[in-house]
Structure formats: structure tokens, C-alpha cells
């Protein structure tokens, strides 16, 4: 895992490059953001294509502001993290596309994160945008990811709705993947406590002509407030 770039990562990177605004990454959106630092987390980053694409998008936008952007690309496996760090250095020798934007590789174990008493400094503050592509391939992965998002996805404000964007490749051999995401993110909520729900679901088709068509399920996951019945 992580030694090659999977199809879902290519799709998510393509979506970001084609429409940064849908991910809150336009200059106007970033300039208007309320916090001093806009934080982006990639789960199961592998080769880092998604994080590197964001870096390139911001470089093309020539984003410069007093507000900083932090991109944290995470994975579990040490060899994958070594390769990820090398890819970041190869693309951004200075550690990011500008002095305002940083990209770092960092380990993250989904299975233990929620139960850890003391967390690494990078995870002490929540993230405004969380991304993941083809990261659910065992039944336990979706509950682990949900546990991480409960701690790591920033709560919404009157003007901002932080989201997690997940891409899942539809495979006949792993049909549980999409089903378990929808099940885990549709769990009953305490009426007084906000919970995470799938707020949007799309089927994307890539390929055709010279290649076999492949379908991907694209989820946007955000906070839901049962008492108010609102997202």
C-alpha cells in the first residue's frame, strides 16, 4: 500500500485541480476564512498526490496572505511515509509552494488515535478540510476514520462548513466499502450532540473510449445537529 497512486487519488486530485472553489481553496475563500491558519489533512496519503495537487493549485493561484495554510499528509506505514516525504521534498524543496503554505508528512494510526490521551502537536487543533481517496478496504477502516474525524474535523460556524471529502472506487470484490461508509456515517445521534453524516453523495465515472469505465463514489461528510435538524 502507498507505493503506487490509486485511481481514487487521481480522481480526487482531478476534482481539486478542476474546481478548487468546491474545496474552499479559492483566493477569495481563503482570504475570508476566520482563522489565522487554514488546515488541511489528507488521510492515507500514500504517494501524496492529493496533497501535492493542492500545493500546486495554491502555487498557481499565487496565494499570498498573512493567513497561513498547513497541509498535513498522513499515513501509517513507515516506508510509505519515507516515500511520501521524498515526494514532498522533490516537488517543494522549501517545504511548500510559498512561505505561507507548508506541506508535511506525518504518521497517523486511525486505530488508536481516538483513545490516545496525549496527541502530537499537529493534531491538537482541528482541520478545515479533510481528504481521503481509496482508504477504506477493510470493514474496520470506516469506524476508525469516523473516530478520527470526530476529533479532527473542525465544527462549523455561521459562515463556514468544514467538510471531509472521500472517494471510494466501486469494486465488485469489495462491495462493502461504500455500504459501510454510508452505514457508519448514518449512525443514530444523541439529540444534544452534533454528529457526522454524509451530506452529499455522487457517482463519478472515469475512463471510456480506450479504457474500461470505472465508477467512484464521492462522499462529502460534515457535521449534523439533530436538535436543530440542520447540517
TrEMBL record:
> Which GO molecular function entries does the Swiss-Prot or TrEMBL record give?
S-adenosylmethionine-dependent methyltransferase activity
Q: What is the official name of this protein in its record?
A: Uncharacterized protein
Q: Which PANTHER family match?
A: HEPATOCELLULAR CARCINOMA-ASSOCIATED ANTIGEN, S-ADENOSYLMETHIONINE-DEPENDENT METHYLTRANSFERASE OF THE SEVEN BETA-STRAND FAMILY
Q: Which InterPro entries match?
A: Methyltransf_16 (IPR019410), SAM-dependent_MTases_sf (IPR029063)
Q: Which Pfam families match?
A: Methyltransf_16
Q: Which Gene3D superfamilies match?
A: Vaccinia Virus protein VP39
What organism, scientifically named, is this protein from? Agaricus bisporus var. burnettii (strain JB137-S8 / ATCC MYA-4627 / FGSC 10392)
Amino acid at each position: 500500500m502507498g507505493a503506487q497512486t490509486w485511481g481514487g487519488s487521481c480522481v480526487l486530485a482531478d476534482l481539486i485541480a478542476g474546481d478548487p472553489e468546491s474545496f474552499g481553496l479559492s483566493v477569495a475563500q481563503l482570504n475570508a476564512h476566520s482563522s489565522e491558519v487554514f488546515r488541511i489533512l489528507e488521510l492515507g496519503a500514500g504517494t501524496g498526490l492529493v496533497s501535492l495537487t493542492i500545493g500546486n493549485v495554491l502555487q498557481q493561484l499565487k496565494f499570498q496572505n498573512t493567513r497561513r495554510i498547513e497541509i498535513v499528509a498522513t499515513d501509517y506505514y513507515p516506508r510509505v511515509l519515507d516515500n511520501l516525504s521524498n515526494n514532498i521534498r522533490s516537488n517543494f524543496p522549501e517545504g511548500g509552494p510559498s512561505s505561507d503554505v507548508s506541506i508535511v508528512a506525518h504518521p497517523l494510526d486511525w486505530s488508536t488515535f481516538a483513545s490516545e490521551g496525549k496527541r502530537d502537536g499537529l493534531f491538537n487543533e482541528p482541520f478545515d478540510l479533510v481528504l481521503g481517496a481509496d482508504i477504506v478496504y477493510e470493514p474496520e477502516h470506516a469506524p476508525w476514520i469516523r473516530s478520527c474525524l470526530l476529533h479532527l474535523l473542525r465544527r462549523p460556524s455561521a459562515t463556514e462548513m468544514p467538510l471531509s471529502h472521500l472517494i471510494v472506487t466501486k469494486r465488485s470484490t469489495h462491495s462493502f466499502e461504500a455500504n459501510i461508509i454510508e452505514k457508519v456515517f448514518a449512525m443514530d445521534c444523541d439529540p444534544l450532540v452534533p454528529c457526522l453524516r454524509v451530506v452529499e453523495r455522487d457517482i463519478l465515472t472515469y475512463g471510456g473510449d480506450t479504457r474500461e469505465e470505472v465508477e467512484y463514489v464521492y462522499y462529502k461528510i460534515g457535521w449534523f445537529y439533530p436538535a436543530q435538524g440542520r447540517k
